[in-house]
Amino acid sequence: MESEAIEMAMRRAERPEEEQEMNKSKEGWGSLDRGTLLVVVTLITALTYQIGINPPGGFWQDDLFVKAGDPVPDNPGSTYLMNHYDHKAGDPIMGDKHPTRYLVLMVVNWIGFYNSMTLTIWLLIGVPVTSRRVKLSFLLSYTLLVLTYNVSQVGTSLTVDLMIWLGLLVFAAVSIFFAFNLLLKSKIYMEHPQTFETTAAARQVERPQEEMNQSKEGWASLDRSNLIVVVTIITTLTYQIGINPPGGFWQDDLFVKAGDPVPDNPGSTYVMNHYDHKAGDSIMRHKHPTRYGVLMVVNWIGFYNSVILTIWLLIGVPVTSRRVKLSFLLSYTLLVLTYNVSQVGNSLTVDFLVWLLYAGSVAISVFYEQNMESAAIEMARRQVERPEEEEVEEEMNKSKEGWGSLDRGTLLVVVTLITALTYQISTNPPGGFWQDDGSGSNHHLAGNPVMRDKHPKRYRVLMLVNWLGFYNSMILTLGLLVGVPVTSRRVKVSFLLSYTLLVLTYNVSQVGTSLTDDLMIWLGLLVFAAVFIFFGGL
């Protein structure tokens, strides 16, 4: 067998350069499946589309007609020269308050949107993934998505935003077009083809079959396209938090004078004349500056980390590599931290403690899989001890019916959708947020959820149910990624809970329904789904 491997290596060495180029194209970016790339590109299209439809900062809710001689609010000491509409209801606030930033954002977003739409068509009609135009188009769309993320946040420097984008552009270009680690491997192959192939063949012959099987257990059995699906969901959620932070945006300007009372601090007064806030500014940044700062830093790290991880996966960095595992660990757990921090009223200390505990459990699952390996070994031992092969084959055929025929990647798509929906409920609860402060019988603070003040019982039920669904779906996703069998009881129970709780949050979120009826409907669906998942076809 060894002589056959050596002979095969010699034949490959004698192949023409064209065939060797074809083999090289199957490494790195060349090994990327067209369907996987389509998932990422359609995500870019969806995000850029949303920015075009709903730009950051929201829209004016009223008309403002100014006359010649009226003072200009944003420029003390100056007056309007003529009668005109300062703004009209429905106009983007950012367009009036930050015209340069808004123009840059719309131009960059327009290029990214149309470029991603064109790239989608190319992929659908079969343009090769390895073609230069596909690579260039993806490079432009993907990095421009990051630029829109930066530019959308009022308060940052446009120059710094562009510099960060250029740095990412260079990094992504080098990764996609050159991939130095793959070039080094190709160089060794071209210089010593016989030695390279013969050594690889010999190692393949000498490697024990048990070791090969073991390497395909747990995280190592994870398909790259499945991991890309999960990572793109993380990118989507962190992008949306950066564009539209929880609490919404101020819809008006508030200019205060020295001596005016401070609404949030009874008994104190303003020291000088200034703008307390301006239309389009984040309410959370004004009302909860510490929480907002933590949220934006954590979200920024998670977003950029997921962007880099996606590039690594697209160019073929192995799923089992330490940098992929570490990057995923950081992005995935920081998503949980942003979920916690986004909810005003919680303790930041408790949020961090919960995150640390969750991050520790995820790290153990991703990096240490002894329990799964031992289960695999035990399963292999039992199969070897079975007296008849027909019994084994019958058992395998049974497991391929009903739920047992479900592919892990398909289930991951559904579960990540549940994660995305429950995450959005937490960061943007139904009913929206107060846009101003209220006193007396209508006491409330801008940026707080309206439902929490108007329907406190329903809000508590909604947040509790949503919390259970979100964390359960996150744990289920992790279990599927590290190789827990789809047919296992814990996967079925976890999916049953996450999926039906999503329906309960849908019902509870609608003010006017009866909470008792909502719970009864959920229980009926729970029983119905349990019967089909645990008994139907199994």
Order of helices and strands: HHHEEHHHHHHHHEEHHHHHHHHHHH
Q: What value does the average pLDDT take? A: 75
Widest sheet, order of strands = 1-2
Terminal Cα span = 43 Å
Shape: globular
Helix vs. strand class: mainly alpha
Number of helices: 22
Strand content: under 5%
Which characteristics define this entry?
mainly alpha, 538 residues, two-stranded antiparallel ribbon, 22 helices
Summarize the topology:
Elements: H1 2-13, H2 17-24, H3 34-53, E1 64-66, E2 84-87, H4 93-97, H5 99-124, H6 132-151, H7 158-177, H8 180-191, H9 193-206, H10 209-214, H11 224-243, E3 254-256, E4 274-277, H12 283-287, H13 289-314, H14 322-341, H15 348-367, H16 370-385, H17 389-399, H18 408-427, H19 450-454, H20 456-481, H21 489-508, H22 515-534
Helix pairs in contact: 1-9, 3-5, 3-6, 3-11, 5-6, 6-7, 8-9, 11-13, 11-14, 11-18, 13-14, 14-15, 18-20, 18-21, 20-21, 21-22
What would a concise description of this structure say?
The chain has 538 residues and is mainly alpha-helical.
Structure description:
- It is a single chain.
- The protein is mostly helical and 538 residues long.
- Among the domains are: 1-57 and 92-207, no CATH class; 61-90, no CATH class; 254-281, no CATH class.
- It has 22 helices and four strands.
- Helix 18 packs antiparallel against helix 20 (456-481) and helix 21 packs antiparallel against helix 22.
